[in-house]
Structures are given as structure tokens and as C-alpha cells.
Amino acid sequence: AILDGIDRLPPDVANSLQRFVHDRYLDLYDGTRLVPSQHPHSTQAPRSEGPSSSPVVPVHPSFRILALADLPGSGKGTWMTPETSTLFSFHAFPQYTSEAQHRILAARFPALSEETLTQLSSFSDVLGGSAALGATPMSMRQLVRLCRHLATGDSSVSLGAQIENMLLVPFLPGQMQQAMRDAMARAGIRSSPRTATRGSEAPAVALEVDATGESLVVGERIIPRAKPERPELVPNPVFYDNAAHSALMSALVTTHADVGDRALLLIGNQGVGKNRVVDRLLQLLQREREYCQLHRDTTTQ
């Protein structure tokens, strides 16, 4: 198991893993008990110890835990307490330098220009050193995702717009927005006055199904349509096309099909049509939808 970001956990939450890490015992929320492989029932199928007992599941002998965390910060508290320090054997990973980041990104994305890679590395350094932002340098995962977007060759969205979308700059307070754009300017990156998250003035993009019904044509892109195993789950909404929604769906298709991202987050106020846009896009792509409502939404029928 990989525990990524345990430095973000309160110390008492991390300490709750002590019995599992050291002794391989853990009680889960549903009543299931994890026990070590040497437990009397470890050689049997998951079972209950008695008529009213919860299931007992043995932990595989080769099960290991790998935890990832940032270095303990100085002057702002630390997640590493005497109790936490007994959980793992610690190994420090050297900090990436700008030169190392540049070499890795250049090797993975040879189509990107030297100027773009230099700007990204410089912005990451500026971001981590800005006291006004209180942010950390961009992670390698964020840099790789940015480069994947840029490597698609879509010239309609600039580097500045991609950065603002990834860091959710339009949703920051005004002072932090300005500090973020100042950091971009110091790295030689032009900020976008209106990013792709604000599609009200985006140019219209036609989304049409070709004559064969097997492909979706989005501008100059041709996206294969799926053959759903459960056609009854493919949405069939009442939808009226407009420029803003078409541009948004085009951006979603680019992120999903060209860039390869599988987890998308669509942000907007209640009642602006997020569900309708998603339903229409899934209808065009012939993809099933399984809806999971995480909170009360009065606009969902």
C-alpha cells in the first residue's frame, strides 16, 4: 500500500496506524478485523470468530506499506512527532534541482521547445520562493501533466492559461491571483486575461457525429465513439447547443482523449448546467454514465 502525503495528516491520525504497522491488527469501520498471517484463522477463508463477531481477514505475509511525505517544515510546525517517527524506517530523497527537472521533461517531451521547459522550471522555483503565496514548488506530477497538455499542439490555450487552470487561479482571492500572475511574469510567462475555465467568450467549436456514426468530429479532431455494453446508461438529454458549452465540451474532449487524463473536475455554480453538459458529451461519445451524488443537489431530477 502506498500512503501518499502523510505529512498532510494530523499527527493523531497517523498515530492511529501504529497497531497495524507494528502488529498487523486493524479494526475497519464496517467491523472487519485485519489480523496477522500468524493468527489462528489465517489459513482459512475470511470468516467470523463467533455468531456475533465481525469478519476476520488475515494480512498477507508480503504486505508492505510505503509512505510518501514532504520534508518537515521549519518554523511552521512539523508532522513528524516522536510517535510518528516510530512508524517507519525513513529514507530521504534528494530535492529535484531545476536542471534535473529540465532534463527529465526534455527527455519525455522532446516536441516542447527549450524556452517552454525553461519557463516551467523557472516558474516552479519562483512559486516555491514566493512568501506572498506560501506555496511549494510545482511537483513533477504537475509539470508532467502540464507538458502533456502542451504537447498536444493545441495553440488555442497558452502556457499561462494552462498554468492558471491547473492551479485554479481564477478561484483564488484577488491578492493571491495578482501574486500568482506576478510570479508567472518573473518566469517570463504571459498570464491569460481570460482562461479556459471561463468559456463565455470562447470561439464556437462544432461537435458533430460523422455520417457513419462511429466518430465524433470536434473541430479538426476525430474521436472514435464507444460501443457501450449497456446502452441504457448512455444519457439522452434535451440539449440546445451554444458557443460556451461547445467550447467547454471541446476542452473536456481534449483533456480526456488527447492528454489522457481519466479524472476530470468540472467546477461551476449550482444551476449553470454542469450535468447537462456532461450528459450531452457522454451522449456524443456514446459513453455510459453512472451518477454518484456526494451531496444534496436540488437541480438533479
Automatic annotation (TrEMBL):
Region of interest called Disordered, as start-end residue ranges on this chain:
36-56
Give the GO molecular function terms: ATP binding; ATP hydrolysis activity
Q: Where is the ATPase dynein-related AAA domain?
A: 1-88, 264-300
The record's InterPro entries line, in alphabetical order, gives:
ATPase_dyneun-rel_AAA, P-loop_NTPase, VWA8
Q: Which Pfam families match?
A: AAA_5 (PF07728)
GO CC list: cytoplasm
Concerning PANTHER family, the annotation shows: VON WILLEBRAND FACTOR A DOMAIN-CONTAINING PROTEIN 8
Write down what this protein is called: ATPase dynein-related AAA domain-containing protein
Q: Which organism is it from?
A: Rhizochromulina marina
